Amino acid sequence: MNVLKIATAGSVDDGKSTLIGRILYDTKSLTTDKLEAIETRSKANGFDYLDFSLATDGLVAEREQGITIDVAHIYFSTAKKSYIIADTPGHVEYTRNMVTGASTSQASMILVDARNGVIEQTYRHFFINNLLRIKDIVVAVNKMDLVDFSEEKFNAIKAEFEKMVANSDYKDQNITFIPVSALKGDNVVSESENTPWYSGRTILEHLESLDAKDVFEKGQARFPVQTVIRPKTEEYHDYRGYAGKLYGGSLSVGDDVTVLPSTTKSKVKSIHFFDKEFKKAKKGSSISITLENDVNVSRGDMLVKTGEEPKITKELTATICWMDKDPLQASSKYFIKHGVNDVQAKIISLSTIMKPDFSGEIENPTQLTLNEIGDVNLKLSKPLFVDSYKNNKSNGAFILINPKTNTTSGVGFIK
Amino acid sequence: MSLDTIKVGALESEAIHIFREVVSQFEKPVLLFSGGKDSITLVRLAQKAFYPAKIPFPLMHIDTGHNFPETIEFRDRLAKELGVELIVRNVQDNIDSGKVKEETGRYASRNMLQTETLLDAIEEFGFDACIGGARRDEEKARAKERIFSVRDDFGQWDEKNQRPELFDMLNGKIDLGQNVRVFPISNWTELDVWSYIEAEEIEIPSIYFAHKRKIFVRDGMIWSAEDDVVYRDEEEVVEERMVRFRTVGDMSCTAAVLSDAITIDKVVAEIRESTISERGARIDDKRSEAAMEKRKQQGYF
């Protein structure tokens, strides 16, 4: 079964949770007991309609404030596909959650309030989806019922959004505009009678049409070794299986491979998944590999096809999204986790930072604070084997860990 | 003999990746095993992650003393077959020593008492990573849970201060005294688990299949009357019906459903058609709307 992960984003009152609740309701994904709970709470809150946002707002604090404050994962399926929605909040201060939700998603849904049009938050959301190279974006122009389902209004918002897209360097991105009312259900799952001027798909029809494959992993084969399997039993006396997940491309028995960082050359001897052997493995597979000659491979090393080596470097330039209360400053030190590899990193300099309203960049900032995004130069204690994020999503991203608190402080996208 | 091409499914591949990160990033992991379908699925995934080596960590069961006998028998047999160490810690011991007080009356359950025993065991063995079968689709508070979830000395979950998890990079760095709860099947749904059990032909305890059982009905839920574990009023009538269990927790908080599904394909078909959520049969969640969140903050799994 195909799994499609979708990140949602919107401002506080865009009706994002309501939209998701509506999708769940109209696809009959809400179970009787959950529906009853929603009915009870809607009534207790004095609403004469069902408050579908209650289907997704999980934490007590959220129910009290009536807003979403963290990434929540929502699951539903149709006959065609399984869906995972990462519901990420749209407040200015929660950019980090939006980036987090989008990092594991193949598609994204941006909500725009039909009354307000494109606002600062919309710029922010689009920028993040663009930075993370999200292939499919659905722009749900919501609350159409409050603007009398006006075609002019919808077209004006679309034109405004497209002006923003014109500056993008990511030309493969698909952007689809849909006029909806999440509260009333127009164009969410079933077609609306209120928008005769709109002949496109409903939100669900559109999602059903998307390819659930991860389009970013068309890059070259990268196999970071997580652990070495040595059973040391009679039957598997000399077995040394290199266990990991294959990112990008494929690997076959007999392929010439290079082990990084040692640059030792070898050949793939066998490919294992559980108790079976295979001639070839495709991207995304957690497998074990054995090599022809007795080479020294350990956790953090990477196997690549000979001739397809990534860049081996002790210096990185990356766009960083900061997620920590302690700001990032020049000369501060962090741990970098790049795939399964850990090294130390020192911030050399900050070159640019996004303006708070995302209208452009400021040069030579002194620091990156929580939820800020900027370009940073780093020096590493040991070389990493990297691709640019544009070329290979999984080998082009890293996280920074604060050595004092152990918290994940930021995420970097290698230039 | 080599087969042609392998493309591991996204959910299975993710879970195996998580298991391999756990043994690489932690010194003393343990798999929390309840004998339920989710932890049985975890065991299969762990087998796959390290094959042909044995699973490189022990299984641990926090036994409330109110478990279904079928589950206990199954647990012991599985651990023996795998050649993996099985640690059992009993809630009864804490009750006997007066460390915790047992609930009494109509809705009494030992479910809450498991937390204390679990925290004691984590300290006793010095476990730094506890792998569990919780899934995000089970319950609203669990939908916000991370794959690596950091807990302090008291097992507390600080839901407002969780580490962001980006791509599949898992940050397992912790301070002394902290430990991490790990959830490899976070992104699986109930149906995913059942479909996997069916496809992999994984053996599960017999109580998951329809069987004849003495039961009584209370608050619209079906309770087992075979053992003395569940408190029953005299006017609550016992009858014999065909039932199966959809989750296998403590007997005092796990209700049955009427069912004719005696084979795995019939169980999967029933789950597909069901309009009641899995935890709808768990009385412990019905105590209040925020029941799970509160328990989790206190160190519950």
Task: Please render the helix and strand layout as text.
The complex is a heterodimer of chains A (415) and B (301).
Chain A: E1 3-9, H1 16-26, H2 32-44, H3 60-65, E2 72-77, E3 82-87, H4 95-103, E4 107-113, H5 120-131, E5 136-142, H6 151-165, E6 174-179, H7 203-209, E7 222-229, E8 241-245, E9 250-252, E10 256-260, E11 264-273, E12 276-282, E13 286-291, E14 302-305, E15 311-322, E16 328-329, E17 333-338, E18 341-354, E19 361-363, E20 367-368, E21 373-386, E22 397-401, E23 408-414
Parallel strand pairs in A: 1-3, 1-4, 4-5, 5-6
Antiparallel strand pairs in A: 2-3, 7-8, 7-14, 8-13, 9-12, 10-11, 10-14, 11-12, 11-13, 15-21, 15-23, 16-20, 17-18, 17-22, 18-19, 18-21, 22-23
Chain B: E1 2-6, H1 10-25, E2 29-32, H2 37-50, E3 59-63, H3 69-82, E4 86-90, H4 91-96, H5 114-125, E5 129-131, E6 148-151, E7 179-182, H6 190-200, E8 211-218, E9 221-224, E10 239-245, E11 256-258, H7 264-273, H8 291-297
Parallel strand pairs in B: 2-3, 2-5, 3-4, 5-7
Antiparallel strand pairs in B: 6-7, 8-9, 8-10, 10-11
Helix pairs in contact in B: 1-2, 6-7
How confident overall, as mean pLDDT of chain A?
89
**Which architecture name of the largest domain in chain A does CATH use?**
3-Layer(aba) Sandwich
Following the backbone from N to C, one meets helices and strands of chain B in this order, namely EHEHEHEHHEEEHEEEEHH
The helix-strand sequence of chain A is EHHHEEHEHEHEHEEEEEEEEEEEEEEEEE
- Could you say which structural class the secondary elements and strand pairing of chain A correspond to? alpha+beta
Q: So, the CATH homologous superfamily of the largest domain in chain A? A: P-loop containing nucleotide triphosphate hydrolases
Tally the structural domains of chain B.
Answer: 2
Q: End-to-end span of chain A in angstroms?
A: 34 Å
Instruction: Compute the number of strand runs of chain B.
Output: 11
Major sheet of chain B: order of its strands? 4-3-2-5-7-6
Count the DSSP helices of chain B. 8
Distance between the termini of chain B: 43 Å
* Shape descriptor of chain A: globular
Largest sheet of chain B: 6 strands, mixed
- According to CATH, the fold-level topology of the largest domain in chain B is Rossmann fold
Architecture of the largest domain in chain B, according to CATH?
3-Layer(aba) Sandwich
What is the makeup of the main sheet of chain A? Answer: 6 strands, mixed
Number of domains of chain A: 3
- By CATH, the superfamily of the largest domain in chain B comes out as HUPs
